[in-house]
Amino acid sequence: MTANGAHPRHDLDPLIHTPVRLSIVAALAAAEKVEFRFLRDTIEVSDSLLSKHMVTLEEAGYVKVDKAFVSKKPGTWLSLTPEGRRAFTEYVAVLEKIMKGSPHA
Q1: Which of 14, 31, 53, 80 could form a disulfide with 84 if both were Cys (CB 3.0 to 4.6 A apart)?
Q2: Cα(88)–Cα(62) distance, rounded to whole angstroms?
Q3: What is the pLDDT of residues 72-84, one digit of tens each?
Q4: Alpha carbon distance 69, 81 (integer Å)
Q5: Residue ranges of domains in the chain
Q6: What does pTM read for this prediction?
Q7: Distance between CA 36 and CA 71 in Å, rounded?
Q8: 10-92 adopts what CATH topology?
């Protein structure tokens, strides 16, 4: 039995489960650090939508936001925190349980 019920879907992290945030976390999990514009273009969202979801993930402690100047131009780099990597790993494990079709795997 899972923490919240018999089926593993109850263990899906609601912070990650939305399509945009899942796309963000999955993209960040594949890299050490990602530039904001690159991530925006990769997951095909607007600046404002990406910013909104980044605030949610940052407040949860899943994402770190670094701002710096490169060649006198401002830039924003995003990365998963250790907590964010752990949450994503657990999220993927729950999805695998669901895909196997065994609620108690």
Answers
A1: 80
A2: 9
A3: 888 999 999 999 9
A4: 22
A5: 10-92
A6: 0.85
A7: 16
A8: Arc Repressor Mutant, subunit A (1.10.10)
